[in-house]
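[job 4471] stage=fold_predict status=RUNNING
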Amino acid sequence: MLYPTRRQTSLLVLGLALALAATAQEPKAPKSDAEPAALKSTKAAEPNVPKSAKVAASVENKPVAEPVASISWSKPPIAPKLPERKSIASVAETVTAIKPGNVTHAEKKLTEEAALVRKPARHRGAMISTAEAKKAEPPPAAPAHAESLHWSYEGAGGPKAWAKLAPEYAKCGNGERQSPIDIRDGMKVDLEPIMFEYRPSGFKVIDNGHTIQANVGGWNAMRVMGRRFKLVQFHFHRPSEETIDGKQFEMVVHLVHKDSEDRLAVVAVLVEGGARQPAIQAVLNNLPLEKDQEVAGTPNLDLNQMLPENRRYYTYMGSLTTPPCTEDVLWIVMKQPVQASAEQLELFSRMYPMNARPTQAAGNRTIKESN
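[job 4471] inference complete, writing structure tokens
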């Protein structure tokens, strides 16, 4: 084994000392929070390629013996704390108040998003004008239709407006055979007598918001003109809707009938002041406490008590006197009125002081009258 000479040992020690001295004198790179400009430019020019491809390229192009830390790397800059994210709508409202130079990256991003919201709508890739954009917006909700008004006897929903309140009420305005009418110049003929088949029956009373109505049970009917009509209900109007040669009465009772083919026939019994009427009193005794509440009446009701002794009558073709004003209704108006006491008339008036439709044009209708 060969040992180094004294001269070789001295040279080796001298070389190591010079190397240590050079290392001690080498200036250290100052620490910086910013990346070197050359690195920044390298990053800016670096294409957007997948990470895996970058790794492969670096392995293929970089020599194995090349020092890994030939460049002094510094810490990446610390990203400023982002403010709490605001809604696009709120930024859109304050975008004009933001001064250039005082905008953070996050606020700038939100401002750009808000600007997109403010831009006019696009149609087939082309920008359209603000006026056209407004046309493209859905139309505002239409105002409530007049049918939201409930029909009544006075005010905005009164008889003159019925035809406009709903399409199904059109006959109230353009019908040719409307009721009631002023009955005059009737053709006096030998009209067949009406066969009333009324018997004591149960009934229910309801205040429907327009009148007091009694719904009749059992089998109550009348025979006239070869047809049989079943009694469905009766109700009251004050003052009377029908007039005789211009004369109006205190009240009228309408007894509504229907046959097997759903054809309607209404018997009108005129009421004047006088003696107490038992059938009317039976209805008043069972008045409900609330509207649209049906109350069973007691005892059974005999409607023969409501008919006049003299059964002569007028007859004509007309309509219902309330919406929808359906026509082709057979009207029978008893010539002799019945009586009701002042107390009974007053009691009804407290609930409905006026619930009568004005008379309608008779036109060229035929009116017949019993001799």
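[job 4471] summary: The radius of gyration is 50 Å.
[job 4471] exit 0
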